[in-house]
Write a structure and sequence with these properties.
The protein contains eight helices and five strands. The protein is α/β, with parallel strands linked by helices and about 240 residues long. Strands 2-1-3-5-4 form a five-stranded mixed sheet.
Length: about 240
């Protein structure tokens, strides 16, 4: 099995990446301009590294960091409402020790779970260009090669779903006979036995309109837990207040 150090070196490379000029300019501008509620905070303003143990059996693939979420805090799915929605689901399924993610020093730990993204920089209007997705895919490809124990993949949104399937083939894995089509709750077994699950992205646009509910989202993570096997770890009860 590849060493933890190999993954750490890859994350260092990701943090220093400047391959996409448009994305680099946008993430850095957002870090300078900020928003009023975070004006006294120092923004990360760099590509966001992935996160989780090298022994993870669940891989979560998101789209990209939010301009004032991950781009501010320096941790993927941290500091915005979509992250709150995600970590509540992870906590309920026993993949995280707490149902919130505020900053890199909040005590959050992941169990059996590794979180990555199709694009590592905050894109303008949350819409990366096709060439930016293509350029950034090299990092997801390397992660797939460095995470040999992954048995379940949850792709959050159509773009992440497609990015994962492309990276899967580029990583040298057998292509599925019929390419799975994205949909919430879609489940496809890939060659070799890896289970791919589709979910709507937990963006505010989806969660506040009811397109994605807590119950819908939780069923996806419950299915992942069932496929991986074992019982959820003993975790603290959920609280709505900040720690």
């Amino acid at each position: 099995m590849p060493s933890v150090d190999t993954l750490r070196v890859l994350q260092t490379t990701i943090v220093g990446c400047r391959l996409c000029p448009r994305l680099a300019a946008h993430r850095e501008q957002m870090a300078r301009v900020k928003v009023r509620r975070y004006r006294d905070e120092e923004y990360w303003g760099r590509p966001i590294p992935s996160w989780g143990p090298a022994t993870a059996r669940l891989l979560i693939v998101g789209l990209a960091p939010a301009a004032h979420g991950g781009n501010r805090t320096g941790r993927i799915f941290t500091g915005d409402r979509s992250g709150d929605f995600l970590f509540q689901a992870l906590h309920r399924a026993g993949f995280a020790n707490q149902p919130w993610s505020r900053d890199r020093r909040d005590g959050l730990r992941l169990y059996e779970c590794y979180i990555t993204a199709a694009v590592r920089c905050a894109p303008p209007a949350n819409k990366p260009l096709p060439e930016e997705l293509s350029t950034c895919r090299r990092y997801l490809v390397q992660e797939l090669r460095l995470l040999p124990r992954v048995r379940v993949v949850i792709a959050l949104g159509r773009i992440a779903f497609d990015a994962f399937l492309r990276a899967w083939v580029e990583a040298g894995r057998p292509a599925p006979t019929t390419r799975p089509r994205f949909g919430h709750g879609v489940a496809a077994e890939l060659p070799g036995g890896t289970l791919l699950l589709g979910s709507y992205h937990p963006s505010q646009q989806n969660t506040q309109t009811g397109r994605l509910t807590v119950a819908m989202f939780q069923r996806v993570f419950s299915r992942a837990r069932l496929a991986i096997g074992g019982r959820p770890r003993q975790v603290r009860p959920e609280r709505s207040a900040k720690p």
